[in-house]
Design brief:
binds the ligand C[C@H](O)[C@H](O)[C@H]1CNC2=NC(N)=NC(=O)C2=N1; alpha+beta
């Protein structure tokens, strides 16, 4: 998967396919809300596994009943790349199963 920086338009186009995600200071970001703190912690563990599988890691913050992700690509100088969107899509696939919204 390409690790070249995406243009602003490419980022905006890809974000349109990922409701809930936004561009925040050159990182793509989403915060999920869950029913309980334990459910939020379980989502963090699941996301951590996906991130190791992809060898691509967000800043992942566990709140009381929230999980916040922000990610860009260090190896592309901190730009947003396809790798960030691949991670976002993978997380979107599993989040509903955790009751995340
Ligand atoms: C050595 C390892 O492959 C790199 O450090 C990976 C790991 N996870 C990563 N995560 C992110 N967000 N950006 C990277 O460039 C990156 N690089």
């Amino acid at each position: 998967m390409a690790t070249e920086p995406l243009s602003q338009k490419e980022i905006e186009d890809r974000l349109r396919e990922l409701p809930g995600w936004s561009l925040d200071d050159n990182r793509i970001a989403r915060t999920y809300r869950l029913g309980t703190h334990f459910a939020a912690a379980a989502l963090v563990v699941h996301v951590a596994g996906i991130q190791d599988e992809l060898d691509h890691h967000s800043d992942l913050t566990l709140g009381y009943n929230t999980v916040a992700l922000t990610v860009n690509t260090h190896s592309a100088g901190g730009a947003v790349t396809d790798l960030d969107f691949e991670l976002a899509r993978r997380v979107e696939d599993i989040a509903p199963g955790h009751g995340a919204s």
